[in-house]
Amino acid sequence: MTATPDLGTPRLAAAEPSSGASGAVDPSALLRSVFRRHAAGVAVITARGERPVGFTATSLSSVAAEPPLLSFGVGTASSSWPVIAEAGHVGVHVLGEHQRDLAATFARSGADRFGPATGWRSGPEGVPLLDGVLGWLVCRVVARIPAGDHHVVIGEVTAGDSSGAGRPLLYHQGGFNGLRD
Fold first, then answer.
1. Which of 52, 104, 120, 155 is least enclosed by beta carbons within 10 angstroms?
2. Could you report the per-residue pLDDT of 6-29, keeping only the tens digit for each?
3. Which CATH superfamily is domain 43-178 in?
């Protein structure tokens, strides 16, 4: 066992956008403010339901190599959640910087995400697979963990393709961006 030094009681530093009239810090606003400064890769998560569903995610994370596990968060108020909550498999698509419009479509509430402008096909396990992505994975859902107004979904990789070309799309400061040299 490794000893951990006592780091004291965590304190929230006052941040201008999150301080109320009383000077109290709103932890939710503080979290959003800090994470606007955190660049994250952009992915689209899809699943097969009565109709295909999907949403843009910036919470994609590798969890383990053996077995190959990943995670992502999905809001329980999301129109995709009822299908994700029951799906046995999901598709995970890493977007390229040329796919800003696709990311925006899957992020927009009420958008026709699988309409004529979206190139896709049915893949392994019937999961909707998007065309032109940098890479895609099909994952068997192994856990759905409640986390506030979201669920963290853990998936085990069962199929995929990493042969897409291009540079990754990033989300930073409230917008979609590419890498700069």
1. 104
2. 444 444 444 444 455 566 789 999
3. Electron Transport, Fmn-binding Protein; Chain A (2.30.110.10)
Q: Which helix (H) or strand (E) holds 85?
A: helix 81-86
For residues 52, 76, 99, 118, the Cα torsion angle rounded to the nearest 10 degrees is 20
For 96-122, the pLDDT digits (tens) are 999 999 999 999 998 999 999 999 999
Q: Which two tokens stand for residue 180?
A: 């700069």
| Residue type, position 152, single letter | V
CA-nearest of 155, 147, 146, 149 to 76 is 149
The gap from C-alpha 155 to its chain's centroid, in whole angstroms, comes to 13
d(CA 49, CA 25): 41
φ/ψ of residue 51, rounded to 5? -130, 155
| DSSP string over 104-116 | HHHHSTT--TTST
CB atoms within 10 A of CB 92: 23
Q: What is the DSSP letter of 96?
A: B
In which order are the strands placed within the sheet that holds 169-172? 40-41, 169-172, 175-178
Rounded Cα distance, 24 and 168, in Å:
38
Which pTM does this prediction carry? 0.84
Token pair recorded at residue 76: 């329980």
